[in-house]
Amino acid sequence: MEKSHNNDTFLGRWISGELSKEELSKFKETKAYKQFEFINKESQLLSGPEIDVEAALLEVKRSTKLKQKRSKAIRLWQTVGIAAVLVISVGLYLNSSKTYSNEVGSIQTIVLDDGSVIELNANSSVSHKRFFWLNNKLVKLKGEALFKVQKGNGFIVEASNNIVKVLGTEFNIKDRINFELTCYEGQVELSNKDEAFSAKTLTKGMQVNILNNVLTETTLQENSPSWLSRVSKFNAQPLYLVLEELSQYFNISFNTKNIDTDRLYSGSFKHHDLDLALKSTLVPMGIKYQKEQDTYILSD
């Protein structure tokens, strides 16, 4: 019925009273009937110029065809728009990253698609491409992690502006206030995006530390980082680095305005006991501490 009352003659036959009883009954059941009924009654009350009905009908047909074309064009652009959104969404998803992160005091082991293993330290995160990572083995690090890389195609780690390239090795990267790279097996190449220093190759037992834009090289005997055993060790390191390390394993902060945090500390603390850790680091240096909520006020 909807189709018949939209054709060229239906409304004219309705106005002139030529509809059959069945057609009129069906028409009255439609939503459009009340609107047409109101328009018809109101039009009877109006007077105006003579209207060329045939010309008006042609104009209505022409307008209807234009609307149909515009409707088709709109539907076409809607389809194109939806397709474009889908393409962009799929592209963004395929290029999205997968991130692993740790809270204060926690450690986790991550196995990558090529069999390489990342031991992620506390309050740290690593991310890499979710798909097609094997084509470009780039990992981005914030914090500290030990990498045990399988032999094969190039494996790259970015930590701030520093880039570490490897071919089957074991190394630790610490990227917090200072940057520290330690090679335990094989060899790694260290470079800087801003070319702040020349590229360096580290082999087993070598360590590079960058603090306040100063690069120092040392050697060591350990076969793995101490934090894997839940211990942090320091050898003549500024106190502010020690305090920063404490905050990675315990949910605390320090007020240091009354002490000199540049003084050097050598020693260690364990990660499982806060009170013992504070005594191991602060008492030997003659520093007193008082707790106010989660902040420790330090004084000489």
UniProtKB/TrEMBL annotation:
Tell me the first and last residues of the signal peptide: none
Domain FecR protein: start-end pairs: 99-189
What UniProt keywords apply to this chain's record, in alphabetical order?
Answer: Membrane, Transmembrane, Transmembrane helix
* Superkingdom assignment: Bacteria
Family matches, as Pfam families? FecR
Q: Membrane spanning segments where?
A: 74-94
Q: Which GO terms describe its molecular function?
A: sigma factor antagonist activity
Name of the protein described by the UniProt record:
DUF4974 domain-containing protein
Organism encoding this protein: Seonamhaeicola marinus
